[in-house]
Each structure stands twice: as structure tokens, then as C-alpha cells.
Amino acid sequence: xxxxxxxxxxxxxxxxxxxxxxxxxxxxxxxxxxxxxxxxxxxxxxxxxxxxxxxxxxxxxxxxxxxxxxxxxxxxxxxxxxxxxxxxxxxxxxxxxxxxxxxxxxxxxxxxxxxxxxxxxxxxxxxxxxxxxxxxxxxxxxxxxxxxxxxxxxxxxxxxxxxxxxxxxxxxxxxxxxxxxxxxxxxxxxxxxxxxxxxxxxxxxxxxxxxxxxxxxxxxxxxxxxxxxxxxxxxxxxxxxxxxxxxxxxxx
Length: 252
Fold this sequence. Notes:
This protein is of the alpha/beta class. The protein is built from ten helices and eight strands. Helix content is about 35%, strand content about 15%. The two termini are about 15 Å apart.
């Protein structure tokens, strides 16, 4: 299932959730993608496969669902095991972090190990690579990801106390990344401790989606519970921003 904004050109809202209850809050509050993760285990902390499957069943096809594979180095046995476990949960997308600052040969070898992993499901979820912007924003991996059959790429931050995506990467850098990804026909997302104050500047770049967790939670932060009021605030801010910005051509 593709998120609707992939064709409409509007930037969508990805909401990261850790349970069925949070997924249902995100669903009724207008999430365009529901992202299953365990924020207590890191930037891309992986939920157990059973909980991911329960989220998929509860959402029941009403929204695309992604799931993260954990903060494991590309090519590691831990990443492969997590990837294999999530393949059969019914998610639409699997998000794979490019941890470990891989060079070209390491990246190719790591991606090859995923491509040859066993898959017993009726369909293989689309793969989304996640690059950690606080470790740099390279463009060279994007052509390799496209070559290896990835559907999309996302910028995020590994250190959730670094000040957020717009602190570690300039608007020009982010624009170059989004443009390069879309020129390769990759779905592209931006995340990393985003708040409602980031929405206007990032939506102006016309990514396919923006990802949120911390801004959707209460005073306990990203490891706390999803708050329906905060979710509604982000949704309404994004909708108002769409109306105020000049129209874009449909996204690639």
C-alpha cells in the first residue's frame, strides 16, 4: 500500500507508535503512515514481531504501516535477524538504518545479505533506508539504494538530544537530499526530533512525508505515551501549511 501523498504531492504525516493503542490513536488522528518502533531501544528501536503483527491486524488496511529494524550496523547478524522477523508481520515497509558509516563496498555487501535473506511471506515489504543526518548527509548511497530495489530513503537523527534535524543539517543540505532522492524516483521522508515549528520549512522542500514521535508525546518525551491532542496539533499545523504554501507538482 502506498501512502496517498506519494501521488498527490502533499507531504504526509508519519507517526511512530509502540503499541496497538497508540496505533489506533494515530489512525483516528489522521496519520498517513503508522510507524511501529520501540523508542526506548534507540532511534530505530525494533518492536517485537508479535506486537507489530498485532498493530497490522488492528489497523486492518486502513493506513500503510512501516516498522523499524533496530540500531544495528548494516551487514550485522542482528540486523539480518530483525529484518527476517519483521518480513512476515504484514507491514508495508521495513525501515533499515545505515548505521556504522558504511563505505560503498560495505553498503553493497550489507544490502546483498538482506536481499538473499529467506522470506516466507506472500509478499515482500518495500524497503526504506534511513540515513542518520547527525553522522552526515551523503548523496552517494541513494543511487545504490535505487539499484538494489529500495522504494525510499529517510533522513533521521541518531542522537535525539542533538537539537533535531534542522540543527544538524542546513536547509540547503536537506533540499539537495530531497531533490536527489526524488530525481531517482525514491520516496523520501524527513524526521529527527521534529516539532510543529519545523513543519513550514520542511514542507516547503516537498518531501513525501515528515516523521514524528517526540512531538506527539507528553512531558515524558519520546518514550512516553502518544497524546491525541499533540497528534491533532501536528496534523492541523501540517494541513494549514499545505494551504498556505504555493502548489507543487505531484511528487515523484
